[in-house]
Design goal:
The complex is a heterotrimer of chains A (362), B (564) and C (354). With 362 residues, chain A is α+β, with helices and mostly antiparallel strands. Helices cover 22% and strands 36% of the residues of chain A. Chain A contains eight helices and 20 strands. In chain A, helix 3 packs across helix 4. With 564 residues, chain B is mostly helical. Chain B folds into two domains: 190 residues, MetI-like fold (Orthogonal Bundle), CATH 1.10.3720; 311 residues, Orthogonal Bundle (MetI-like fold). In chain B, 76% of the residues lie in helices and 1% in strands. Chain C is α/β, with parallel strands linked by helices. In chain C, strands 1, 2, 3, 4, 5, 6, 7, 8 and 9 form a nine-stranded mixed β-sheet that branches. In chain C, strand 1, helix 2 and strand 2 form a beta-alpha-beta unit. Classes of the chains: A alpha+beta (362), B mainly alpha (564), C alpha/beta (354). The interface between A and C is small, with 4 and 3 residues.
Chain lengths: 362, 564, 354
């Protein structure tokens, strides 16, 4: 990396809440970068965020901001000296201050008109200038969140931390605010670490994802890489519901109801999980040659099919060699929606199939 | 990371500990140490063998002390809980005739010292008093011909104390109700709870820390009351301590009794703490809207009006009227220049003590919060609250002892080095009086401030800190304005208590420095109840002004209050 | 919409407020430290009568010596003196009851004083032989009865109050009170511990009600008919009779005073008195004040304004006190009372005299 990272965590370990443990976590955030700290609840992501902000005392490892250590178990730079902004899930606006006063709160270095000017400028940025004189309790959840963002951005922090900032909002609003926030952050070039449990949100917002599992990093990289090249069952499963078939490697391949799947380097006799994303299950009407996919088509029965916004979600039933039936999900572009009980052709897109040794799952 | 380091690691890790050994914790621990000195001085007597006094006490009076103290606690605890919570709920959540007035008027009895209400009720209802006299004259009755409740009895003492102590519960539960987020109550209504059930299943549990703090205050006041039980001849631990110390000349046994009383109270506090610790209630949303109000009509409204009027009438209007009557009778003799000096003395003592008590409590509670309830700090705060469990006179001795020692050392040294001796600089001045007040009443402000700071979500701290404010600045610019209603409350509670405080003031005050309470006591103990009325009435009136101001401030201080 | 103070203002205001506070405290502290000037006498007094202030004003007018006064409960003052030790500002301790005076003496708080004036004015049994304390006034603890319901011929001695004919008729205050403690101490001195305990048990059985209130309460209760006789100090009746309250005067109009044990050792009497403190800085001034207080002028004020018996035999009694007639007082040296005090308290505990 040519530039100094705005944030660097080096081998951070930390026990918290009596049960949680963060174990040897290291990652960096480059200037202007938006990094998502993703993980299920209890994976330690909020604790990491609080460690970065200085709200929690670090036990082991090192945290550097702009190359300067701010916490290494001996040194502890207090939060107010770290130059980080923080936006909370619930906004946490000061109820006794107006919107403008809230935003100006972090501008202690500025005086009078300059201070008001900067507050209004940021409020303008988030589209809340009209509410400058209002008190937080008259604002809607979305508006409160915008003000919270403005408040955190006002002092132009070196690093902005967002803690599940959109969770409290309803779906439509969430989409809007997420979009706005992304633009504001990108326009201002703010270096941002955002904590979320929602993979879709992470993929929408960030340049790079750090995926946590039980206090350690499961995988990190650009969203596409995590989605397309997961390195474990956990990672693969985290981003979407996924079809999973157990099998055994025999002659470099694995037998599935869809036919043979290449096993790569894995030795014969390895028990494996074959993970197939729903969009890798290509469904076409019977009799058509089908499109895309690899290998031969097999027949399957449609249990039911639902149309979502941009895709059709199809529940399928396919016979196995043992005479059992396997329940399967497929996601196809929405222009195709089979009838219930229709028999269809199914093919797999082998580029979206992931195979991991079975014992590694969980 | 190896397994054993995992096991050995505590939740608040090394980093955390290093981080909080700062001015705040030093202050908290320092204050706690200072304030606990008098209590420890008294407790140190505990280990001096007291000979056969204990056998004598156990054989004769100890059972009576225990039984009476227990009955007082049960009676006053129940009474204040029922009256305090019921009126607070009615006034906060319902609309009925007279409600805006009741809102503040319900606090009025707080301004009446228990010993004063005891004097006035006795004057009214004793055998030789006007009420029984009137009954006897009207129906030509003599002694034994009729039954009349004996006012100077344990039941009377419970009634008197309940009437003047319920405002503690009212005040703190009302604040708790006011600070509740309305959505929680609305959720419960939508979940099918009627108003009564939402009250018992949602509002009450949420308000519990406040209510518990209120009842704890009332109970401690009960156990510490000396004037009433003494006057009503109800022997309990408090009168026992005095009798053993001064009557029998056995300070060791007396302090051992005091220590026993303290254990009583500590157990109470501990139970309250434990239950609160488990169900720590943090407000889940920072959104507040106008509280819902049930409009009461007809009989319900009349019942609510009566329920709120009665405590005010019995606890304030009636004794106030009696005092006023007596005062008018004696004003030309009793209200003179000296009288106004007493009033000024009382007022300035109370003002200084309450300001200090609130400032110190705020700093300590905030230090506790910063330390994330670090065990040492929590312990320090508990230690600083101990004084409330000790009768004022015992504290006075505990204050005098180290102060006088320090004065002596100082004088010896000055005499040796400079050949001057300034006399008693600490023990003979109002410095000692105010210090005793702090020892005695810091718990009140600590409890109140803590209960309200607990309700401010820690996100507020985090937000402020990450916005570049230091802890002290955060306290002043975020917490202070958010909880300032509670700070006022704490201040007023201390103020009124200091105005009423008697034994420590009597014991420690300097020459020519009398307060209204001292004057009232002197006249009353000379059995000049009517002559004492002007000073007593003045205590009551001085207490009333801040009580009213306070009530208005609380109503305004609710987060998000306003028309917007 | 409510306005909140801006953080900046709060910040600026707080320190100055604190400074002001500290200034007030230290200033006040200084103001109340009494100077040790020779023109001042510092008194710790447990007497809370307005007559006393009158006397101090007279003394100041006469001598130019200023009086600084601290009133408090006797035990508290004794405790405070003890704790303050050699730098205590007090020159004189004034308290009621020989029991209290004896206790202070036992704690070593007084110094011996020799004064011809005092010795001439005060009979020997009303002062401590070593000159540690001197009686200033005398009071008798007598039986008061309702003239309609009790004939004086039915009364004789304290001991006779144990008779069952008084069942449910006797009013007396709590045993917490030093007056009762000293009365019982005098009975112990006269009759011994066991006899006195038996007497106390029977007396408790004869009580009209559980003891409560002060002496005046007992007298009023007799007037109102709650009981027929009361044990009380004389000056309380005097003050009730001369009260501003018409009701009090009415209630006490029918009360008679009976001096018990006239055929034997005499009625139990006690004193209020004073001693010069061990570390007095103005010993001369303190003695001067004592001499003033036993002089005829001061003794008259005690008698007229507070209805006490003067200790100085040369001083007269008030009209009301005079109307009760002369009596024979117990010749026991009042200093003995404090010796039996602790015993008396325990005895009353055992007898159930609350």
């Amino acid at each position: 990396m040519s530039e100094t990272a705005v944030l660097a965590l080096e081998n951070v370990s930390h026990a918290y809440d009596r049960v949680g443990v963060i174990d040897e976590v290291s990652f960096t955030v480059a200037p202007g970068e938006l990094v998502g700290l993703l993980g299920p609840s209890g994976s330690g992501k909020t604790t990491l965020l609080r460690l970065v902000a200085g709200l929690e005392g670090l036990q082991e490892g090192r945290i550097l901001i702009n190359g300067q250590p701010v916490a290494d178990g001996v040194v502890h730079v207090p939060p107010e000296k770290r130059g980080v902004g923080l936006v909370f899930q619930e906004g946490a606006l000061f109820p006794h201050l107006t919107v403008a006063e809230n935003v100006a709160f972090g501008l202690a270095g500025l005086k009078g008109a300059e201070r008001r000017g900067r507050a209004l400028e940021v409020l303008e940025q988030v589209g809340m200038a009209a509410y400058a004189g209002s008190y937080p309790h008259v604002l809607s959840g979305g508006q409160q969140q915008r003000v919270a963002l403005a408040r955190a951005l006002a002092p132009a922090p070196r690093l902005l931390l967002l803690d599940e900032p959109f969770t409290g909002l309803d779906a439509k609003l969430r989409g809007e605010i997420r979009d706005e926030t992304l633009h504001i952050l990108k326009d201002s070039g703010t270096t941002t670490l955002i904590v979320t449990h929602d993979p879709e949100e992470a993929m929408y917002m960030v340049d790079r994802i750090v995926l946590l599992s039980d206090g350690s990093i499961a995988q990190s990289g650009v969203p596409e890489e995590l989605y397309c090249h997961p390195i474990s069952t956990f990672v693969a499963e985290f981003f979407s519901s996924i079809n999973r078939i157990s099998g055994v490697v025999k002659g470099n391949s694995i037998e599935t109801p869809f036919g043979l799947v290449a096993a790569g380097e894995m030795p014969d006799g390895t028990e494996v999980d074959v993970l197939i994303r729903p969009e890798a299950v290509r469904v076409t009407p019977l009799g058509t040659g089908g499109e895309g996919g690899d290998g031969d088509a097999v027949e399957a029965r449609v249990i039911t099919a639902r149309r979502l916004r941009r895709a059709s979600y199809i529940h399928l039933c396919i016979g196995t060699f043992e005479g059992e039936h396997l329940h399967f999900h497929s996601r196809v572009p929405a222009r195709y929606l089979p009838r219930d009980d229709e028999t269809v052709n199914v093919r797999l897109d082998h580029s979206q199939i992931f195979i991991f040794p079975a014992d590694e799952a969980r | 990371m190896s397994a054993d380091t995992l096991v050995s690691r505590k939740p608040a890790g090394r980093g955390a500990r290093l981080r909080w050994l700062d001015g705040w914790s030093v202050f908290t621990i320092g204050v706690a140490a200072l304030v606990s000195v008098p209590v420890l001085v008294v407790l140190s007597h505990f280990f001096i063998p007291a000979g056969d006094v204990w056998r004598h006490l156990a054989e004769t009076v100890l059972t009576r002390y225990i039984v009476n103290s227990l009955w007082l606690m049960i009676g006053v605890g129940t009474g204040t809980l029922v009256i305090g919570v019921a009126t607070a709920w009615l006034v906060t959540m319902c609309r009925f005739r007279g409600r805006p007035t009741f809102e503040w008027a319900l606090l009025l009895p707080m301004a009446v010292p228990a010993y004063v209400i005891a004097y006035t009720y006795t004057g009214l209802f004793e055998f030789a008093g006007p009420v029984q006299g009137y009954l006897r004259d009207s129906f030509a009755l003599a002694k034994g011909d009729y039954w009349f409740p004996e006012i100077r009895s344990i039941g009377g003492a419970i009634a008197m104390m309940t009437l003047v102590l319920y405002p503690y519960v009212y005040l703190l539960s009302r604040i708790a109700f006011l600070e509740q987020s309305v959505s929680v109550l609305e959720v419960s209504r939508t979940l099918g709870c009627n108003p009564w059930r939402s009250f018992f299943s949602v509002a009450l549990p949420l308000a519990r820390p406040g209510i518990a703090a209120g009842v704890a205050l009332a109970l401690m006041e009960t156990l510490n009351d000396f004037g009433t039980v003494q006057y009503f001849a109800v022997d309990n631990f408090t009168t026992g301590i005095f009798r053993t110390w001064f009557g029998m000349g056995e300070p060791e046994a007396a302090t051992q009794l005091a220590a026993t009383l303290m254990i009583f109270i500590f157990a109470l506090v501990l139970i309250e703490r434990l239950s609160r610790g488990r169900g720590r209630v943090r407000h889940t949303t920072s959104r507040y809207r106008a509280l819902p109000s049930y409009q009461l009509t007809g009989a319900k409204s009349a019942a609510a009006t009566t329920a709120c009027f009665l405590p005010i009438f019995l606890g304030f209007l009636l004794p106030g009227a009696v005092l006023l009557d007596w005062t008018v009778e004696t004003a030309d003799r009793m209200i003179d220049a000296r009288f106004f000096t007493y009033a000024a003395n009382s007022f300035s003592l109370a003002a200084i003590a309450s300001l200090l008590a609130v400032a110190i409590a705020l700093a300590m509670v905030y230090g506790l919060r910063l330390s994330q309830q670090n065990k040492v700090m929590v312990f320090a705060a508990r230690v600083a609250s101990m004084g409330y469990a000790v009768p004022g006179a015992v504290i006075a001795v505990g204050v005098l002892l180290p102060f006088a020692w320090f004065d002596t050392v100082l004088n010896d040294w000055l005499q040796a080095v400079f050949d001057v001796s300034p006399g008693l600089v600490f023990s003979g001045t109002i410095f000692a009086v105010i210090f005793a007040y702090l020892v005695r009443f810091l718990a009140i402000s600590l409890n109140t401030v803590e209960a309200s700071l607990d309700k401010v979500t820690t996100s507020m701290d985090d937000a402020s800190r990450t916005l570049g404010r230091k802890p002290g600045n955060t306290l002043l610019s975020v917490h202070l304005p958010m909880i300032y209603g509670s700070l006022l409350t704490a201040g007023i509670l201390v103020f009124v208590d200091v105005m009423k405080e008697l034994p420590a003031t009597l014991f420690l005050r300097p020459f020519n420095f009398d307060t209204l309470a001292v004057r009232t006591y002197q006249l009353a103990s000379d059995e000049r109840l009517a002559d004492a009325s002007s000073a007593a009435l003045a205590i009551v009136l001085v207490g009333v002004v801040p009580v009213v101001v306070l009530s208005i401030a609380i109503a305004r201080s609710r987060p998000g209050h306003g028309k917007g | 919409m409510q306005k909140y103070a801006k953080p900046a203002t709060v910040r600026a205001r707080t320190p100055s407020a604190l400074f002001a506070l500290v200034a007030v405290m230290t200033g006040a502290g200084g103001a109340f430290t009494p100077s040790a000037g020779a023109a001042e006498v510092n008194i710790y007094s447990s007497r809370h009568y307005d007559a006393d202030r009158q006397l101090y004003a007279l003394f100041t007018a006469e001598t130019g010596i200023k009086i600084n006064l601290l009133q408090g409960k006797s035990n508290a003052l004794v405790e405070r003196l003890k704790r303050e030790g050699k730098y205590s500002p007090a020159d004189l301790l004034i308290t009621v009851d020989a029991g209290n005076l004896g206790r202070a003496q036992a704690a070593g708080l007084f110094q011996a004083v020799r004064s011809k004036v005092l010795e001439a004015a005060i009979p020997a049994r009303f002062r401590e032989s070593g000159g540690h304390w001197f009686g200033l006034t005398m009071r008798a603890r007598v039986i008061m009865y309702h003239k309609d319901r009790v004939k004086p011929s039915e009364l004789s001695t304290y001991e006779a109050l144990a008779d069952t004919k008084w069942k449910g008729r006797i009013l007396v205050r709590s045993s917490n009170n030093i007056y009762n403690q000293s009365l019982v101490a005098s009975l112990i001195a006269a009759n011994g511990f066991d006899k006195t305990e038996a007497w106390a048990r029977r007396l408790v059985a004869n009580m009209a009600r559980r003891p409560r209130g002060g002496d005046r309460d007992q007298i009023r209760a007799v007037g109102a008919g709650e009981g027929d006789i009361a044990i009380a100090n004389t000056y309380y009746l005097g003050r009730l009779l001369a009260s501003h309250s018409a009701k009090d005067r009415e209630l006490t109009a029918k009360i008679g005073v009976f001096f018990p044990n006239q055929k034997g050792r005499g009625t139990h009497v006690n004193v209020s008195g004073a001693g010069v403190t061990k570390y007095a800085r103005n010993k001369a001034g303190a003695i001067k004040l004592l001499e003033f207080l036993v002089g005829p002028q001061a003794q008259k004020v005690f008698a007229e304004a507070n209805f006490e018996y003067p200790v100085n035999p040369k001083a007269g009694r008030s009209a009301i006190v005079g109307s009760w007639g002369p009596f024979k007082a117990d010749s026991l040296n009042v200093a003995v009372l404090s010796k039996h005090n602790a015993e008396a308290v325990r005895l009353m505990d055992r007898a159930g005299w609350r």
